[in-house]
Design a protein that fits this description.
mainly beta, 5-stranded antiparallel β-sheet, about 50% strand
């Protein structure tokens, strides 16, 4: 199984995940390929002989002397733990360390911050599952206290490395559910520079849907765009949400391949006999919407050229980026 691929300085790629033979435990796995996909080296990393392990993410090591794999493995005295494994440029294991306590801990996801690492992993304690963020130095020592987010819900899953915002804070995306039987909702967390919670928002397309968020990107207005998918019921489809800085949803889009016709109401009439609006009919349709590389406008009961109609194209910040006078064609 492959969980992450990153480019390397020699224009090749490093691929990490897990590998397993039939009736055997799984191991962390790394594969190095060159720029055209040719094999360079591969290696597996055994963390114990008592349970499975896999790498969920990888980053170049601070200092450039190798790579850090982050994932999970079984510790015979503690249960499953988040693990960091440092390897050199030839894939040889240099050191490793586990993070977590006596409770089960999920796979670690890693990102570089200045000369430190942010490690995100999940804790499964009793019936509760929640994310934890640790700041770790290059010797794999904790820097400052752990940040536990165990007040979100009974089940709170994470999906991605922490993302830095424009205000020196951070964003995290994933999912949340009240228990293991409930339908998960997409979840976005906004954090301060110290990883304290500013707000947590959960969103579902419907109470009967399974919703997951897998990525988040900060936007110039202080908010973010989160991406994920609706898994159940069919049809499965991608999912985009725009949040403002306070966690309000500006818009959301289901991103499947289906053409959507959207009816757009005209502005309020300025009197019953307003020449500019007479005969407008109240409907303009755009196909497809959201637009791709072309959009078709259909007008009912009026001629756009005679009305001096103009199509205004806005970006996600609400700024007009294009004005198109509309004609009969």
């Amino acid at each position: 199984l492959v969980y992450e691929i990153i480019p390397t300085n020699d224009k090749g790629f490093l691929i990490v995940g897990g590998t397993q033979l039939v009736n055997e435990i799984s191991y962390m796995y790394a594969l190095k390929i060159d720029s055209i996909g040719g094999f360079v080296w591969e290696n597996t990393y055994s963390l114990s002989n008592y349970g499975n392990s896999a790498a969920m993410s990888v980053v170049p090591a601070v200092g450039g002397d190798g790579y850090i794999l982050a994932g999970y493995g079984y510790h015979k005295d503690k249960d499953y733990q988040a693990y960091l494994v440092k390897i050199n440029h030839n894939g040889e294991k240099l050191e490793y360390k586990d993070f977590g306590g006596s409770e089960a801990n999920g796979a670690g996801l890693l990102t570089v911050y200045q000369n430190l690492y942010f490690l995100i992993y999940g804790v499964h304690k009793a019936k509760q599952y929640y994310p934890v963020i640790s700041l770790i130095d290059t010797a794999f020592n904790l820097v400052g206290p752990l940040k536990k987010y165990d007040n979100i819900s009974e089940v709170a899953g994470y999906a991605i490395p922490i993302v830095k915002g424009i205000d020196n804070g951070y964003w995290l995306a994933g999912y949340s559910a009240k228990d293991n039987t409930a339908n998960p909702a997409g979840m976005v967390m906004r954090l301060t520079a110290n990883c304290d919670t500013v707000w947590v928002k959960t969103v579902q397309t419907s109470a009967s849907h399974d919703n997951y968020l897998r990525d988040v990107t900060p936007t110039s207005d202080g908010g973010c765009i989160a991406a994920g998918f609706k898994l159940y019921p069919s049809p499965q489809m991608g999912w985009l949400l725009k949040f403002d800085a306070d966690g309000n949803i500006c818009w959301q889009v289901n991103c499947d391949s289906t053409i959507i016709n959207t009816a757009i109401e005209p502005p309020p009439q300025q009197g019953a006999n307003s020449p500019a609006l007479r005969g407008l009919g109240g409907v303009v349709t755009l196909t497809p919407n959201p637009a791709t590389n072309m959009v078709q406008c259909k007008f009912l009961q009026y001629n756009p050229a005679q009305q001096n109609a103009t199509l205004l194209l806005y970006n996600t910040q609400g700024v007009v980026v294009k004005k198109v006078p509309l004609t009969n064609t």
